[in-house]
Specification:
Strand order of the largest sheet: 3-9-10-12-11
Number of helices: 29
Number of strands: 12
Shape: flat
């Protein structure tokens, strides 16, 4: 049985299952069945209204979702009448409900929400996180399953008057509004925002518009708006400002001037964000303040700001000739987006910032430290004469891999990447010539890496995949923990050098021994399984299995054996070749040793996995997806005596970085000799 209460004290029973136990000597079973059917379809509803009403108090706005409610009612032989049965069942139902409500305990079968808006808030959050469907307490929303998350959220929020307002305010109060806004399309966000003002407005007090503008600007000063391009997020910004206003003043949606203040600021932000030159922006502010609106519109239009007349009129009306207020307002409304504080040239330090399309590499700094990449480089270079310079070259090599092989030639000489890795050689390619004859200790690198993975508890003992991946003219053996999605080993194989079965057994034994794991299931990819003797691996795992050629079939079979979901397996199983191609630099450095390339591909992937673990819902994203959506874009680096100030690029999903707390970090790589790295949110 599922039941729900709305503000009108409604009880809904989804299914009533009645099982009867009668003595074997009872002869009137047919009459009993007829009586109970009559009870359940007739008198019970009336009796429930009478007995349940005192339990479900009309003034209580709470919402309960009850999965099952078991009841037991006994009748004396021969005394079962429809009215008596209905009374007994209704009384027992009321008693059971009262017990649940009094206990106020939540578990897998009972859930309580303060009100219907709180219930919908939970549903909307789960929709945004792609975890709503399949939960029993959302069955009333099942019709929305066919819609994408944005449309489903919009549909449910517009299903009742003021529901959107209540849910938006609750999301903001919980600091979860950004999580929902990030999945909304501009169209759906616009419809939701418009619905918040459909209930009618009360007359506004004099000066209400200016009051709201000041209040909203103050909120932007405390917490910037979305760092995405305003043209793409106007309505989401509007919803965010609306929520902030109602948190400060409940009931403010009745003020007709609030809507005008929000739309005016959002349009102003869109207009000013199109202006990339600080000098042009300064001139525009002066002209708008001086009443030269036509000249200000011309400046904005030539800078790419279309349909800007209304926004600039709004700006001029608020400034009232005060250019200082205009500069401050523009700085606040643009903070976290495009030109941001670039209003006055005097605001810049005398030191010139270094621009780089690869400044996003600094986001990987904490992951470099977590994976002890500095120690790995030093372990590989410890036997070389100039070990410090060689270690810096190896860190640089690792950073290039993290940003992808297709960008290797551009990344290798980028000054920001050089500063990040501490590489100071005349050129990366010339430094590699020294590496080729340096006698690097690759075993030390791998053992150091495995020790780090073991100590950080990144490895499980449940399911390991062994696969043979073809890349160009070579084949590579990859071992991967399917539960943590961590590569355990990357090792090239040449048919002229060794037996594939013996090599695979040797690598599996070595890795499992170093990681101290004995997996429950060892899975062989089809290409590898067809070329090795599987019988020799029985002692290495509790069970062995083969992944078939058909991805759908193999995912279903392995899901049963491994305990992983078929969906996760379908994502993981085909990914290795694409990922190996991303990390391998053999095309860029065709003369480099294969073991050199494979060893650092193993480490580079671990660095990106560590980074992806910190993001919301991007744990299975490919390396290229992570680069394009989080690391790409133009950033800047300002070198100070005590630190590198890194202004991060405005990547497509930088809002996720902000939500995860990754845009304002400080860390101190030991190879930078005491100098800190300060990460700052993007400006453009």
């Amino acid at each position: 049985m599922t039941s729900g209460f709305h503000n009108d004290a409604r009880l809904t029973v989804g299914r009533w299952i009645c099982s009867c136990s009668v003595p074997s000597s009872y002869e009137a079973i047919s009459d009993l069945r007829h009586t109970l059917e009559k009870t359940l379809t007739g008198a019970l509803l009336e009796r429930c209204d009478m007995h349940v009403a005192p339990v479900v108090r009309r003034e209580d706005p709470s919402v309960w979702r009850i999965r099952t409610l078991d009841m037991k009612v006994s009748f004396a032989r021969g005394e079962v009448q429809a009215s008596d049965a209905a009374d007994a069942l209704a009384r027992q139902l009321a008693s059971s409900l009262a017990g649940v409500i009094r206990g106020r305990e939540e578990n897998d079968a009972f859930l309580r929400f303060e009100n219907y808006a709180s219930f919908v808030t939970r549903f909307v959050l789960d929709l945004a996180g792609n975890r709503a469907w399949g939960k029993w307490y959302y069955e009333e929303f099942e019709d929305l399953r066919i819609f994408p998350p944005s449309q489903a959220i919009r549909t449910v929020l517009l299903s009742a008057p003021r529901l959107a307002i209540d849910v938006i305010v609750e999301l903001a109060a919980r600091q979860n509004l950004d999580t929902v806004l990030v999945v909304l399309t501009e169209k759906d966000a616009s419809l939701i925002f418009d619905s918040c003002f459909e209930s009618g407005s009360a007359p506004s007090a004099a000066g209400s518009l200016n009051k709201w503008v000041s209040t909203l600007l103050e909120s932007c000063l405390q917490e910037p708006l979305f760092p995405r391009a305003p043209a793409e997020r106007c309505s989401c910004d509007a919803i965010l400002l609306f929520a902030r206003a109602l948190l400060r003043q409940p009931g403010a949606d009745a003020d007709e001037q609030l809507r005008g203040a929000i739309l005016g600021l959002v349009e102003l932000r869109r207009t000013l964000s199109a202006i990339r030159s600080p000098l042009v922006l300064e001139s525009l502010i002066h002209k708008a303040a001086a009443g030269e609106l036509g000249a200000a519109i011309d400046l904005a239009t030539h800078s790419g700001a279309l349909s800007c007349a209304g926004a600039l009129q709004f700006f001029a009306d608020r400034m009232q000739g005060d250019t200082d207020w205009g500069r401050e307002a523009a700085a606040v409304i643009l903070s976290g987006n495009l030109p941001a504080r670039a209003i006055s040239v005097a605001a810049f330090s005398k030191a010139e910032p270094l621009l780089s399309p690869f400044a996003g590499i600094f986001l990987l700094g904490p992951s470099f430290l977590n994976l002890r990449s500095g120690h790995l480089s030093e372990a590989a270079a410890e036997s070389a004469e100039n070990s410090a310079a060689l270690a810096a070259t190896l860190r640089h090599f690792l950073a290039i891999k993290c940003l992808g092989s297709v960008r290797a030639s551009d990344v290798s000489g980028d000054p920001a990447v050089c500063l990040f890795t501490g590489f100071a050689g005349p050129s990366f390619l010339s430094s590699l010539k020294f590496i080729e004859t340096a006698g690097l200790n690759f075993d030390a690198v791998r053992k150091c890496h495995w020790r780090t993975m073991r100590e950080s508890e990144r490895i499980s003992d449940r399911c390991v995949l062994a696969e043979l991946v073809s890349l160009g003219d070579r084949e590579v053996l990859i071992l991967r923990d399917l539960f943590s999605n961590e590569w355990l080993d990357v090792f090239g194989w040449s048919g002229e050098q060794s037996d594939l079965s013996a090599l695979t057994q040797k690598r599996v034994k070595l890795v499992f021994g170093m990681l101290a794991v004995h997996p429950k299931l060892l899975v062989f990819g089809d290409a590898l399984a067809s070329r090795v003797d599987l019988s020799i691996f029985g002692e290495l795992a509790a069970e062995c299995a083969v992944a078939g050629r058909d991805e759908t079939t193999q995912a279903a079979q392995l899901a049963d054996q491994s305990g992983l979901s078929a969906k996760r397996l379908q994502t993981l199983l085909p990914a290795s070749r694409q990922e190996l191609a991303y990390f391998s630099l053999r095309a860029f450095l065709p003369n480099s040793a294969e073991e050199f390339d494979d060893t650092f591909s193993l480490v580079a992937r671990a660095v990106l996995r560590d980074f992806s673990r910190r993001l919301f819902g991007f744990d299975l994203s490919s390396p290229e997806y992570l680069y394009q959506n989080f690391l790409a874009g133009l950033g800047s680096l300002l070198c100070r005596d005590e630190a590198f100030e890194v202004r991060l690029p405005a990547s497509p999903l930088s809002v996720i970085l902000r939500m995860a707390g990754l845009q304002q970090q400080k860390f101190s790589p030991p190879w930078l000799k005491g100098r800190e790295v300060w990460l700052l949110p993007p400006q453009d």
